[in-house]
From TrEMBL:
It comes from the Eukaryota. InterPro entries: PduO/GlcC-like, PduO/GlcC-like_sf, YBR137W-like. This is DUF336-domain-containing protein. Gene3D superfamilies: Haem-degrading domain (3.30.450.150). PANTHER family: PTHR28255, UPF0303 PROTEIN YBR137W. GO terms for cellular component: TRC complex. GO terms for biological process: post-translational protein targeting to endoplasmic reticulum membrane.
Length: 181
């Protein structure tokens, strides 16, 4: 299926912790519900269709069990393995309240150092420090209300596509809110 959207390259993912934290907090949504999750998921899907690599998109609440509000693939070629990555990235975002890219940078991609933090290699298998899991904040809330995960691109691109599309949806919702005043 060909996309009608033109390919737009992703910005480079920051490697400075303060920049990553600022990026995570830069787009608090005015509210969050199934409609907003679908809008974000659709924006991600549309953008990711312009990439040749297949990817999976997942948006769910931070609850256990998760309330899945959006889950889709972009092209043939995704696999069950993508869902395992999604589960691990999601678990990391919820446990640490941070993007998986931030965890990757914090631990310099060192899985053994990360395993020491979470209680050994057995426990480390439940989490991932590979970019693509991003916390979703609502204005006025300190802790994430949801998690958005992309799996399938390079990890820094998984991270940036979520950050960029989340920012776009946040801007659009704010503009709509202002127009209604």
């Amino acid at each position: 299926m060909a996309s009608t959207t033109t390919f737009k390259p992703l910005a480079e993912a920051p490697r400075d912790m303060d920049q990553i934290i600022a990026q995570e907090r830069a787009s608090p949504l005015p509210s969050f519900n199934a409609r907003v999750a679908h809008r974000l998921g659709t924006a991600l899907h549309t953008r990711l269709l312009t990439f040749p690599a297949p990817a999976c998109i997942h948006i769910s609440t931070c609850t256990t069990p998760p309330h899945v509000l959006y889950h889709a693939t972009t092209h043939d070629g995704t696999a069950l393995d993508n869902d395992f990555w999604i589960a691990r990235k999601r678990a990391s975002v919820i446990r640490f309240g941070a993007s998986t890219w931030r965890l990757h940078v914090k631990y310099n991609g060192d899985e053994a150092a990360f395993a020491g933090k979470v209680g050994g290699e057995g426990k480390a298998g439940e989490y991932a420090i590979h970019g693509g899991g991003v916390p979703v904040f609502v204005r006025g809330c300190e802790w994430p209300v949801a998690v958005c995960v992309v799996s399938g691109l390079k990890q820094w691109d998984d991270h940036m596509v979520v950050v960029e599309e989340l920012a776009g949806v946040c801007r659009a919702l704010e503009e709509e809110r202002e127009a209604m005043k």
